[in-house]
Amino acid sequence: MDSKEFRKQAHKAVDWVADYLENIEKYPVKSQVKPKDVYDQIPSSPPSAGEPFDQLMKDLDEKIMPGITHWQHPHYHAYFPANNSYPSIIAEILTAGIGAQCMVWETSPAAAELEERMMEWLKEIMELPKNWHGVIQDTASTASLVAILTARERVTDFKINEQGFSTDRLRIYCSTETHSSVEKGAKIAGIGRENVVKIPVDSAKAMIPEMLDEQIQQDIANGYLPCCVISALGTTGTLAFDPTKAIGEVCQKYNLWLHVDAAYAGSAMILPELKWLKEGLELADSFVFNPHKWLFTNFDCTAYYVKDKEVLLKTFEILPEYLKTKTRGQVNDYRDWGVQLGRRFRALKLWFVMRTFGVDQMRQVLRNHLKYGQWVAQQIDENDSFEHLTPPKLNMVVFRRLEEGLSDSELNDLNQKMLEAINASGKAFLTHTKVDGKYAIRLVLGQTYLEERHVEAVWKMVLSANLKKS
User: How many domains does the chain have?
Assistant: First the structure.
């Protein structure tokens, strides 16, 4: 493919994307294919000769698109969103075209300096602590791993990096509701899943700080070395908020690293009226949230902040001869700020999004989503056939259908069938969790182009879905 053919086909591809997003509501939200449906349509071996690009696009439409779940559909209400927007897509195209590998300042000064500035912009509009230093990671799971590794090195005086594990029995603390990435991070860090101590939660599914304190005291008495605590601001299952300030005070008492995981809900901190979300953040050693979830920036783009960047750098920096540069110490070489050496130019899409939307419009879109969540919560309150299983928070409701005379087990079956019926219809995609053993439907209202009409429509789907236990 030469530049002339590239220009021709790229224009067609952009038109394809524009048509796709413009007509996305015509697709079933959740893919309807069965296992191996797509796999069996792909030849077992690659072609020996190149094929026409038009054939590739035809196969994309006929073979691939039926197997796509449409995350940008306004009726995508599952898990948490992974939003994009038109300016973000354009920036991603440009990033791919530039093709820079942004591991150190020398390999693309603009990438490093734009990233530094974008992290400052986010810090400013969210009113985060001024002494924090920011870096873009790929995902929140990676950011939490970075926090665990940094905490591990600080508590062991950087011995594990140099000598490996000896007799230290480290402990990580989180609530029973915390994301599975914490356990995965403990495995990767060599600390082990058995040393992830899950602290009980209260009726709002938030960690109980007093029980954290008791557990730490008990572990110290039993010869363990407490390492770090993860405070969740918006758990995946129920959007529960741990009391960060009280947890931070416990961490200060024992000199433990406090990592705050606000992967989804952190985006809401751009709203001045939600200052309560930031209570106690000044006590945190590290903090993460995902612009690629709720701030219109396509996956992947994770904002990670750390209070003591020198501890972070000491944990990760390695300086072989071929990476030594004259600018070292004058600039941020972001390869030293996390696991990856190779890094994508992720800052460009943040820049495009924030400049195209503007802070005012970004805030207005999130306020609309909060209003939609409140509306659905009100419908549940006013209908005796439904109940909240956790208090509604931000733009997410966790609820179940009720039917007189049914046990909790039977209600679990009823709500599961109801959810499956909605998803099978192709009109919307929702997911579930369990709250104290009760099957709960999660409805998240955060897609970039969500409108009031979509919210009313999904509630009608809930009302009309399979109501009788079969």
Answer: 2
